[in-house]
User: What shape does this take?
Amino acid sequence: MNARGLRKYVDDLLRGRRPKAFQPDDFEAAQIRTAIELRAARPGDDAPRPEFLNDLHARLAEQMAAAPPEVARVSKWNTTRRQVVVGTSAAAAAAVTAVSVDRLVLGGQAEAPAASGQLTPNDGRWMRVAASSDVPDGVMHPFDLGSVNGFVRRVNGKPEAVSGVCTHQGCRLWFDASDDRLNCPCHTTSFAPSGQVLTHQLPIAPKPLPKLMVREVNGAIEVFAPASPVEPA
Amino acid sequence: MSRNEPVGPRQLRAVPNDGYADWEAVYQDNATWVYRTLFARVGNRADAEDLTAEVFLAALRPLRLTASVGEVRAYLRATARTVLAAHWRETLGREITAIEDIEQPPESEEAISDAPQRVAEVLDTLPDNYRRILELRFLESNSIKESAAELGISVANAKVLQHRALRLAAQINDANDGGQL
Assistant: This one.
């Protein structure tokens, strides 16, 4: 019970002042919530002040121009304890959000995003990427046809191929055999040999790797890919 | 094997311009609804401004601009949810209000605030003098003195009336929620 704390809190809400912290019990918390809703239901009173929007715009411009991402950015204000705590919790907020997006990607088969589809060029031909004997079970075989590069492997004896280019910003992936994953050198995104995203540190998960059309004929593995680009004469 | 054969020519389509050009576009387009969403849950300008600033300072830098408008807004609402939860932990030590998971897009009126509907429901069930004091004080911004004059009672009585009306309104509000708090 803290009758005085509650009275002050409600009074501050009514006077448009920042309310002061105290430890409310259950019923006091319910009264605060109702007081907030009553106050927030005042018609036409919840638009942000233009001065506030401009000031925040300037602070954001300063932040976005500055270099290192982890530096505290409370510079313009008087750094009271509350604001330091606030700054820390904001960083935590971003981290938590990123993690929950990450979980969506990693949350098991049912939730995994659909593959980016199959790369089937408009005008292509079957091109040899390896001898059959070069791709035994359990091996990730890289290839580069100029127009397309990727990795071919066997799944239950049948060849499968994925693109070797990260779906975030196009950096070239490399295969880490000890970890059995394709890694991106740019932002440490990693993909399973099947093309599914395994880990990333981006706010929103990148797409899985496109699959390539692949077949095995006459002792060779072939990928359907566009012929090398034709340059104008 | 048919799945593994090349298909015929496909239609060439323009890519819809669905994302934001830069962080400033993200800010201009979303600052107002983020602020209003937070204001509806803290009820005062100072906290709403601080929390809005916190959301954008935390969210903009790691934001990937190739994300669609819908993804950016969902991300901003998720960040606002975390920021608001931290605010209540730090000030009152318990969650007073929350930003819920909802179907509606974050910038829609339903998503920003359901306070007007909830308040209307509660006020409807209150006795007349209780309803009037809450309307005068909270919705019409009258001072306690003005409200007392309006109701023809003393200031001391108006204070007691407001206190009792808020208690009863909170009980009804709480019951409407199935006693969540």
